Automatic annotation (TrEMBL):
The modification N6-(pyridoxal phosphate)lysine is found at K114. The keyword Lyase applies. The keyword Cytoplasm does not apply. This is Threonine synthase. Its EC number is 4.2.3.1. One of its GO terms (molecular function) is threonine synthase activity. Its cofactor is pyridoxal 5'-phosphate. It is an enzyme of class 4 (lyase). Residues 90-323 form the Tryptophan synthase beta chain-like PALP domain. It comes from the Bacteria.
Length: 472
């Protein structure tokens, strides 16, 4: 399997090449040259597979450059019952006798769904780097959950360092403590005086400096990484197969969304032939995606227009993986994608809504809704009252929107993207008591913090990276 850029038909190589590369040289994102198709008979046969074997079957066609036994080993080390709390890895639980289900994606080391992709990334990086005799310095940006998931996945990996940017003071106390309390020789936390989009722009600016990038072996783990998208598509298969519907029957899924990575993974699964009927985007007040699916207008917001909300991991002004979806909707028209994304970079609304691509979007099965702080509070309280189950604010965005789209007799699977213990303040506000916290995080806010605070300035960031690498 080869990969192409969304902005040209430029050949980006095989899985291991795009794994380490980040953005394509033309600024686009990596996409597989075709999407393998899974027959219903194959899906039936997959019903009895373990999570690990299912992950192997789903990902195998995309990864032609890692031998089978090695790939199975990587997957086995990524997804252990010990790390994820159960053999199921991502259990599906039905809420009472309703048609609402929660797909539990947050039982891993950092208590958010990003662990699913990151644990795989950590193992596959270690394997590929060792094969190639290379080192990698991961430069990433996080609005909360990516950072801790990446850091927990890279602990002890001796050919990888992590430089993780986070928006200063914008994450929950628990999220900050989860990252900043780590005292690991290969992990550097950097708090930027700005919002998440500023952090993302800094990462882009460093990557735009080709000399710096190659001198310091800079790589990425942010949500544009293809391996993350691929690893996440596995649990859509798992959820469908666990839902109890006959193979071929409809299931709907609702996804709390920010950078559109999770949802795109679902769309990939659907494109492979998984019978997902509707895929619903749940946005918070930062409703770029909801606006697009309602109007066809993709109106990117500058950092200063991004609201700080109680589902902070969805506080984005643009959705990086959205380009992949529009690429598929445009039938792989790289020239058109290039024009549209140039318009976006110049602050314009691209003309997607006036193009045949908009018709394809409307037929894609995607839909969207949005929720507010009050909706989240009501949903957290309502789900606890009705089903004795506490959910986090991001999951609440998903459940709130999912319930609006739910149809009788069709399972509505809402993705649980974090555990409520990560967002204590909002949970307290909603139900008046905190969520139970896994013992290993009991007193985490009181641990010493290791973090470098810097201005929103790319030169400052580059000198910090250079300085840290000179020390190590
Ligand atoms: C990252 C994150 C999201 C958004 O996922 P995307 O793939 O960026 O759309 C939603 N909820 C939580 C808890 C997250 O950490």
């Amino acid at each position: 399997m080869h990969y192409l850029s969304t902005r040209s038909s430029h050949d980006l190589g095989s899985f291991c090449d795009v794994l380490l590369a980040g953005l394509a040289p033309d600024g686009g994102l990596a996409m597989p040259e075709y999407i393998p198709q899974i027959e219903h008979a194959t899906l039936s046969a997959w019903q009895k597979l373990s999570y690990q074997d299912l992950a192997f079957e789903v990902m195998r066609p995309y990864i032609s450059d890692i031998p089978e036994a090695e790939l199975r080993g990587i997957i086995a080390r990524s997804y252990t019952a010990e790390k994820f709390g159960s053999e199921a890895i991502t259990p599906l639980s039905r809420l009472g006798a309703s048609n609402l289900y929660l797909l539990e994606l947050s039982n891993g080391p950092s208590l958010a769904f990003k662990d699913i992709a990151m644990q795989f990334l950590g193992e596959v990086f270690e394997y590929v780097l060792a094969q190639r005799g290379e080192r990698l310095n991961i430069l990433g940006a996080t609005s909360g959950d990516t950072g801790s998931a990446a850091e927990y996945a890279m602990i002890g990996k001796d050919n990888v360092n992590v430089f993780m940017l986070s928006p200063h003071g914008r994450m929950s106390a628990f999220q900050q403590a989860q990252m900043y309390s780590l005292q690991e020789p290969n992990i550097v936390n950097i708090a930027v005086q700005g919002v998440f989009d500023d952090c993302q722009d800094l990462v882009k600016a460093v990557n735009a400096d080709a000399d710096f990038k190659s001198q310091y072996h800079i790589g990425a783990v942010n949500s544009i990484n293809w391996a993350r998208i691929l690893a996440q598509s596995v649990y859509y298969f798992k959820a469908y197969l666990a839902s109890g519907v006959a193979i071929g029957e409809a299931v709907d899924v609702c996804v709390p969304s920010g950078n559109f990575g999770n949802l795109f993974s679902g769309y990939l699964a659907k494109s492979m032939g998984l019978p997902l009927r509707r895929l619903i985007v749940a946005s918070n007040e930062n409703d770029v995606l909801h606006e697009f699916f309602s109007t066809g207008k993709y109106r990117v917001r500058p950092g200063k227009e991004v609201a700080k909300t109680s589902s902070p991991s969805m506080d984005i002004g643009k959705a990086s993986n959205f380009e992949r979806f529009i690429y598929l909707m445009s039938d792989g028209d790289g020239a058109q994608i290039t024009r549209w994304w140039q318009e976006i970079e110049q602050g314009h609304i691209p003309s997607i809504h006036e193009h045949g691509t908009w018709q394809a979007v409307k037929e894609s099965g995607l839909g969207a809704g949005r929720s507010t702080h009050q909706d989240r509070l009501n949903t957290i309280a309502g789900i606890e009252r009705r089903f004795a189950r506490l959910i986090d604010p991001h999951t609440a965005d998903g459940v709130f929107v999912g319930e609006q789209f739910a149809e009788e007799n069709v399972p509505m699977i809402c993705l649980e993207t974090a555990l409520p213990a990560k967002f204590e303040d909002t949970v307290m506000e909603a139900v008046g008591h905190p969520a139970e916290r896994p013992a290993r995080f009991a007193d985490i806010e009181n641990l010493p913090k290791y973090v470098e605070v810097i201005e929103n300035d790319v030169e400052k960031l580059k000198s910090l990276i250079a300085e840290k690498l000179a020390e190590s």
